[in-house]
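Field reference: sequence -> structure
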Amino acid sequence: MAGKALRRLTAGGIALAAAGWVLRDIPAELGGKASGERLARVLRSRQFHDGAFHNSVPSGPPGVPDDAPRILAQMLRDRDQRRPAGDVPLVTAPLVPPSRDGVSAVWYGHATTLVEIEGRRVLFDPVWSERVSPSQLVGPRRLHATPVPLAGLPAVDAVVISHDHYDHLDRATILALTAAHDAPFVVPLGIGAHLERWQVPEERIIELDWEEEAVVAGLTFTATAARHFSGRTLRRNDTLWGSWVVAGAERRVFYAGDSGYFDGFAGIGAAHGPFDLTLMPIGAYNPIWADIHMNPEEAIAAHVDLGGELLLPVHWATFNLAPHPWGEPVDRLRREAKATGTRLVVPRPGDRVDTGDVPQLDPWWELLTAPPAGRP
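Structure field:
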């Protein structure tokens, strides 16, 4: 009897602790809501009307294609194909001073990328948490570890956020970066409210509307359009999303964030390109949400529209966010790059790529691609 009572007390204590964690941390994970001058800037935005931000090219609510039952069945059936068949090879690139006149990049997985441009370091969409979710108990979990601990990052000059979805804006990582670095956070309109709630000092928050720019550490950051949406709760589009141009005196980098393909990429290329490097999302696509997530072939088309010289794919390999097989995005990307003559680099997570010395493409992911169901 004493043992059963002890177990009940222990289980009750765990339940109370879990409830306390949910009540304390989940609301903070959801972020803040714009007010004051921050809200006034939101309301003045050309992208904001009828109570929400809107894409320049309309994207309706996700439709239901004729093969939706097949897609759902695939998500339930082919789970093994949506994860690597073994351990993803990780690299810890040695810390070296960034080139004063070059461009290099370290892809840490998913969209998290450290770009070195003309001697400065810019960190895009940093996510070090185990899950991309308001709760670390549920939600998409990492398929590979981070190549380096967050404490192992070099000093950065700016942290750039594309939008506020959990796989791009991670509260725990933001808290750690706020404490360990003094770099400003460059974000689209409205996201400053999340950072403010998470105790990021106001002087370290730079919020921009599309086609607005700010100069940080000698680099010019321009918020540019993307075709996507936002929201950390069931309420959507009360913060802006976007892509980013980072320009030095001679070098330029483009980061697409999350986006469906649209003719805006050609406009961005004409106004801000060409680009030494583009970081293009290639994973988590599906016909149901084609308006807001481009597929690999569309990533190539956008790269060409932008006037990109070298393409580094992101938004794949790290989290299971769609029913396609784990290695399919990069396989399709490689085929399309070969057909179009597009320069491509696919580093292992944590490896450093110098745009001036790009190695021959090594299809390292092929060893981790599970065979189709029913085949040995």
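Note: The first helix runs from residue 2 to 30.
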